[in-house]
Write a structure and sequence with these properties.
The protein starts with 6 loop residues before the first helix and ends with a helix. About 50% of the residues lie in helices and about 15% in strands. It has about 250 residues and is an alpha+beta fold. It is built from nine helices and eight strands. The chain has a six-stranded antiparallel sheet with strand order 5-4-3-8-7-6, sandwiched between helices.
Length: about 250
């Protein structure tokens, strides 16, 4: 499907995402420079966002996200029970294996979104929060998306070549890894996306519908050996099946 560009909307969304990433207040000039837009255009958009309570501005003309974004986020979470269904499984996985367990929405090939999270106390280089976004095809989750998402190979290759890894695999090697993922039903990324970090991922399949959710686990490679990672993957598969079956049953 071809999506017609609407520049004002795209810029407004970009401003909201920028303010969400930076957390610290920003002035109009800094926002415009960060996004490569004209300051007057940024100001006009910011005024609308302030009026809609999605952005707030202080007396020094510094902008931050407004409470209106919280209301939207709450409504989104309340309309989707996946975070609630997956959270107990994430908590159990995190306690048992000492990893950070993550529930993911996979809306498209551009970004995956963290919607549920159970952290470990162990130090992990990959900083993750609910709402964090990562390129969809990166790491172990990307292989699951490619294996179970029914996406055209040409589109996968185009997006794969734009990814940034610590130790990037070749396209041919990655395609072989995707085939392995399809056969075994999980993927393990050891030191490829991030050196020293192992990421395990499984799809959450809900009936016959397209793949739109997944579970990932992040741990230190030195503490998560191959046998332990495979054991973790099998437990994650069981969790994914339970969540997927519950969702399919709820729709009947």
């Amino acid at each position: 499907m071809t999506v017609r560009a609407v520049p004002a909307v795209s810029r407004a969304v970009a401003i909201l995402r920028l303010l969400g990433r930076t957390r610290a207040p920003m002035g109009v000039k800094a926002i415009a420079e960060a996004l490569g837009i004209v300051p007057s255009t940024a100001l006009h958009i910011l005024r609308v966002l302030v009026a809609e309570e999605l952005v707030k501005v202080d007396s020094a003309k510094q902008y931050t996200l407004g409470m209106g974004t919280l209301a939207l986020a709450r409504a989104s979470l309340e309309s989707d029970d996946f975070p609630m269904r997956v959270q107990p499984h994430l908590d159990a996985l995190s306690r048992r294996y000492g990893i950070t367990a993550i529930g993911l929405e996979l809306p498209n090939l551009q970004h995956m979104i963290v919607v549920a999270l159970s952290r470990t106390e162990a130090p992990v280089r990959l900083h993750v929060d609910v709402g964090s976004r990562f390129p969809t095809l990166i790491s172990a989750t990307g292989r699951c998306v490619a294996a179970f998402g029914n996406h055209p190979a040409a589109e996968l290759e185009k997006r794969f070549k734009a990814l940034r890894w610590d130790n990037a695999p070749s396209w041919a090697a990655w395609c072989k890894e995707v085939e392995v993922t399809r056969r075994q039903g999980y993927s393990i990324d050891r030191d490829t996306y991030i050196a020293g970090v192992t990421i395990v991922s499984v799809p959450v399949l809900e009936g016959s519908g397209p793949l739109s959710r997944g579970i990932a686990a992040v741990g230190i490679s030195g503490q998560l050996g191959r046998a332990r990672a495979i054991e973790l993957a099998h437990d994650m598969q069981a969790a994914g099946r339970a969540v997927g079956q519950a969702a399919a049953s709820a729709r009947r």
